[in-house]
Amino acid sequence: MLTIKKLGLQIRGAAYAAGDMTAATPAGQGVVMPAGLSISKSCTDPGDLSGWCVTLSATCPCDECEYPYGVTFRSMLKEPGVNNNEYEPKYQWYGGKIARISCTAGLIDDEFLLEMEDDILTQVTADTAGWVDGYRTYLCTVDTTNAAASIDILDENGTSTTVVSGAATSLALVDAINADATVNLYVEAYIHTPSATSEYFFIRSLVPGYLFTVAANVVTTVEARSMCFQSKSADRKIIPQVDDGFATMAKYTLFKLENTTTAGTTTVAVNVSGVGTVLGAANDHTTAATYAVNINALSTLDTTGVMTAYGNPTGDYVLIWGGSTIDRLLLTFSDATVVASTTTIAWAIGGEGHFPYLTSDDVFKIFANKQHQGKLSMLVYAEQPIDGAEYCHYHLKSVKVYEPDLHGANHLNMYTQDVDLYIRKATITTHIYDKDDALLERSFNRDTAPAAPNTSVEDMLQIWCNCQLANW
After folding, report:
1. Domains in the chain and their CATH numbers?
2. Suppose 425 and one of 91, 153, 326, 390 were both cysteines; which one would form an S-S bond, judging by CB atoms 3.0 to 4.6 Å apart?
3. What are the tens digits of pLDDT across the range 245-282?
4. Which residues contact 272 (CB under 8 A, 6 or more apart)?
């Protein structure tokens, strides 16, 4: 299937009708395909890390009682079983048990919540063979009706530093935190969402497992404290799992952009997936702060808790935060056709995470691991990946359920069938097929010189299975 575009295929069904080729409405096609067929697609660019924040619940389950706690991480590899033995998802767990917790007014005393968080973050950091890094993160607010703001930040040894801003805004206080030579050694801050009377901002440890704490001060309030985890590699997705009532989970997006001070004006296009909004091009000026201002000015997303950019004037970088409603954040920087941007993405955390594209080496390893019936002839006659090309992986799964012949327990038969397609990325959205309206069996032919190609590989796959593509 590496060269599927050369072969074409036929899909049995009714004659072609106007609108059948619309990927959004493939109804009526794929009539002979089994029920329960689905297609998953892995075809991203550099890929990004998984990011999840876990916030412990303070609801008291019982007073003066033993309390077990923990977080489980489930992992899924980019290509299970290819040069690894992880054919199924694997799990890692971090936690323990407190001999006795106490509660006040129906809430677990915060010292016990802090003890559990410290232990989990310390275990995660100490596990050098683990899949995740953990960062303590505070969500705070500033009361903007005041003239100034301050906050106390304590390092791991309990030494407190009071940071004061000249204005009662999240931007002013975040700038003050990042400029403070004492606290910026172990934390960084960035803005969340502006509003009329209170503005939100985050404080996050710079290194995994650093156990700083925050105390509210003049006109600031600590809204939440979380453990934010990210995968160590884009080739492995991680999903945390917690017991009901123990904690809540939310995915998050966080990009760090460096080298943002390009001389002259360049552009950056921001595409926010999951909220149905594509932002236009933003001017990229000579400071990180103006860069962030221009990104935020592209739309009102930064006022709705969806996405906010922050330019750090001290570190000369931009952090772009995205909430749990974002499926993916994509950035495109201008090339020499305008003014070439020097901006680079230092790291990218993208919610559930997105696997990197498959290289030709990846595809060769996958096919080299397939069964060859005791001989290597398949490596001679099978299609070979094109050197240097990028590939997309499509996984087709069908589920068939057969009614039992016998009455009773465990007599229902269910079968799954999996088909994997590896198709060169450069060809998947190009219109390369011609449809034949006259044939009852729909034909997608790859002619030497098609008169008016109108169908891409992805269009064809969706019509074939009568379903929508889903990224994994």
Report:
1. 4-43+358-471 (no CATH), 51-251 (no CATH), 255-350 (2.60.40)
2. 390
3. 999 999 999 999 888 877 666 777 777 777 767 677 77
4. 278, 279, 301, 306, 307, 322, 326, 329
